[in-house]
Write a structure and sequence with these properties.
two-stranded antiparallel ribbon, mainly alpha, single chain, 4 strands
Length: 169
């Protein structure tokens, strides 16, 4: 199974756990009139659901461990040197945040006129940097982040982990 598929499967398993937990709530109690007898047959018992939950939780833990190991062992080549996948993911997030900050600075005017509170004087707010330079920096940093994100996506589809998803997919 590819790492990309394992990530999707992990999400699916978490959803199944939520659904089974909700099912426990539905089968754990029954509302009856005072003189009505308890039913003798139930579609599924709490114990049935617990067994299924335990199996899914065990698979989820194993899958999560395999994903973590793979994220550490898979190396991404970047302009900043080789990085483990987990570090490359964080680096891409940081670069995108940096690009947003640079873009915000680029969108600000070099000079901004403001009125004082009494309206008697004009205040000029001066940028102590060149907005155009930050526009260019934002573009370059965003390109770096996109290259790393693309490399991460490619690694997710070439990296295989030893997990049989046939019970779920």
């Amino acid at each position: 199974m590819y790492l990309a598929d394992a990530i999707k499967l992990k999400s699916l398993l978490l959803k199944q756990i939520d659904k089974l937990s909700e099912e426990v709530e539905r089968v754990a109690f029954i509302e009856l009139e005072t003189d009505e007898p308890l039913p003798t047959i139930q579609s599924r018992s709490i114990e049935d659901i617990e067994v299924e939950l335990q199996a899914i939780r065990t698979d989820l833990r194993r899958l999560d461990r395999l994903i973590c190991e793979s994220n550490l062992q898979t190396i991404i080549e970047t302009n900043d040197g080789p990085l483990p996948l987990v570090e490359a993911m964080e680096f891409a997030i940081q670069l995108k945040a940096q690009a947003r900050m640079y873009q915000d600075l680029a969108e600000r005017p070099k000079r901004e006129f403001q009125s004082s509170y009494g309206g008697k004087s004009v205040i000029i707010k001066h940028a102590l940097y060149d907005p155009e330079l930050y526009r260019l920096k934002a573009r370059d940093v965003e390109k770096r982040a996109n290259r790393i994100s693309s490399a991460i996506d490619a690694a997710n589809y070439r990296t295989e982990i030893d997990f049989d998803p046939s019970r779920y997919m």
